[in-house]
Amino acid sequence: MINVIIVDDEPLALDVLETFINQLPNINLLQKCENAFEANEAIKKHDVDLLFLDIQMPQLTGIDFYKSLTNPPEVIFTTAYSNYAVEGFEMDAIDYLVKPISLDRFMKAVNKATEKIGNKSEVHVGSDDEDFIFVKADKKLVKVNYNDILYIEGLKDYVIIRMKTGRVITLQTMKSLESKLPERFFKRIHRSYILGLNQIQAIVGNTVEIIENGKTKQLPIGKNYREELLEIVNQNRL
Exposed, middle or buried by CB within 10 Å (0-12, 13-18, 19+), for 72? Predict the structure, then answer.
């Protein structure tokens, strides 16, 4: 999931980009800002991956604003004037969109952004000898040891990693996180749950029993996941 802020002093331009963004499942619009000062506060408040940043704005241009940022997100510049393109690309912008922006041109820019931001990886996967991952949460990378994970719960675009000592909430999909976890330690047991296999205490009907905070907790087993889970248990692969 890519977290986005739009910055533009034209309401129509804001609405057009919002409409485009809302059609994409992997883009999360955090805020629309009408000037650089609003955008600056938004960046302080949110964990921003990408700016759609208008160049021609009153008081402070988009380029000057972007130059002022200490640790800037990725940027796609938008403008009605093509003569800024060279300067935009010199700043390592992902793309440069000239208004009026068409949907197909917007999609090309988003595909570039998805590839570049995706390569940064929201989760660091350790080598085979490592027993931890780093997940992006609260504007930092948090180390999570595999042995500390009880289970992982999906909640729309977020996942909650439930651990022996607290929890970590990260903005990504269950599918994305599942692909980065070692299969020997974790198993998807439900569309909303990934289980740490070493946490299984018992399987009762269509539920798995684990211990959380000193108490027995039951997690549901989805019918599409039950057979494979039982196969793992029967083969003593825990």
Answer: middle
Q: Has residue 137 been placed in a domain?
A: no
d(CA 113, CA 42): 20
Which residue is associated with the tokens 């439930």? 162
Sheet containing strand 149-155, edge to edge, reads 166-171, 158-163, 149-155, 193-196, 186-190
What are the tokens at 90? 């010199």
Q: Is the pTM of this model over 0.85?
A: no
Is the pLDDT at 234 greater than 90? The verdict is no
Percent of the chain's residues with pLDDT above 90: 55
CATH code, 204: 2.40.50.1020
Residues 165 and 79 in one domain: no
Which of 176, 238, 237 lies closest to 210 in space, CA to CA?
238
β-pair type (2-7, 149-155)? unpaired
Residue 46 burial by CB count (10 A; 0-12/13-18/19+): exposed, middle or buried?
middle
